[in-house]
Write a sequence for this structure.
């Protein structure tokens, strides 16, 4: 997921927000730098890598008219809005020349000063109000967490640090679950978190402080102490892909006819972590010594990136 923030250059670490039809960099109290043709001299998409496109993330280099430069990471929605803002150009000189001899009509409607008042009231005032209340209206991870947990910005910073201590980054979604409330003591509130590829992380809050973080009946944080980390229990997509390659190569050294091997599809591989070990289970179809295609079920146990056990059709080949 995109961070929607400046990751390098001027305004580093400031959030990029979309509000009331404007794309802006929130550089501090009452300070919003709009990203459109009035402020931006040029922009360039830095990466077009396949993984970045799949994840809905764009890295864009911004050069401002005042000479400042920023590298921003934004999601596809904000990126598309930015493209629209930069595409809306004023009439070209060609158009002006074509219409040079056409008498100008008097503009109807409000006077210039009336239009100015309208813009200030309906556009500028809401933006200033939002900048004065960033935790309430901004869409960055910290602000969303503060709103969902109903805590202060300072408490939100501490919660983010605690989540990071167990390997959970800021790109989370959070939802209050009343069924988890008062699990350990009266007044406690329970929340379910999703973080990237991982869901159903349980967060217990004691007022504005983290009391307990759990995953799959395992304590990761309890009473101010880190007990384990999320990577002790989950296998990421990239880890799973690497394990599949490792297991396939190992099996081909054992099969009677490795060139005929047809391994199970991605959905038929079971991979999980348990007691410091990674367990991999699946099946492979290949020719036996008589040339017939047979299916063999296998299980690998891997520890510290080394295969410590291999079982094929109930027979242990390595232990």
């Amino acid at each position: 997921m995109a961070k929607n923030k400046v990751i390098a250059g001027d305004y580093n670490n400031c959030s990029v927000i979309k509000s009331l039809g404007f794309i802006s960099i929130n550089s501090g109290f009452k300070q919003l730098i709009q990203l459109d043709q009035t402020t931006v001299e040029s922009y360039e998409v830095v990466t077009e890598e396949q993984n970045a496109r799949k994840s809905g993330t764009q890295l864009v280099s911004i050069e401002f008219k005042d000479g400042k430069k920023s590298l921003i990471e934004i999601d596809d929605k904000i990126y598309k809005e930015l493209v629209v803002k930069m595409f809306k150009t004023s009439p070209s000189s060609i158009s002006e020349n074509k219409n040079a001899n056409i008498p100008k009509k008097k503009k109807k409607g409000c006077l210039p000063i009336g239009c100015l008042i309208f813009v200030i009231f309906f556009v500028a005032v809401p933006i200033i109000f939002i900048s004065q209340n960033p935790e309430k209206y901004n869409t960055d991870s910290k602000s969303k967490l503060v709103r969902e947990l109903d805590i202060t910005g300072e408490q939100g910073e501490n919660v983010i640090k605690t989540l990071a201590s167990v390997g959970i980054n800021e790109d989370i979604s959070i939802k209050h679950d009343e069924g988890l409330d008062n699990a350990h003591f009266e007044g406690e509130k329970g929340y379910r978190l999703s973080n990237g590829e991982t869901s159903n992380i349980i967060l217990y809050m004691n007022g504005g402080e983290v009391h307990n973080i759990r995953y799959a009946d395992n304590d990761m944080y309890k009473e101010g102490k880190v007990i384990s980390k999320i990577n002790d229990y989950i296998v990421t997509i990239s880890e799973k892909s690497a394990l599949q390659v490792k297991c396939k190569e190992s099996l081909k050294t054992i099969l009677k006819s490795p060139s005929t091997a047809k391994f199970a599809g991605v959905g038929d591989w079971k991979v999980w972590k348990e007691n410091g070990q990674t367990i991999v289970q699946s099946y492979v179809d290949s020719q036996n010594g008589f040339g017939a295609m047979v299916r063999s079920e296998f299980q690998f146990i891997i520890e510290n990136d080394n295969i410590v056990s291999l079982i094929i059709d109930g027979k242990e080949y390595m232990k």
In short: The radius of gyration is 28 Å.
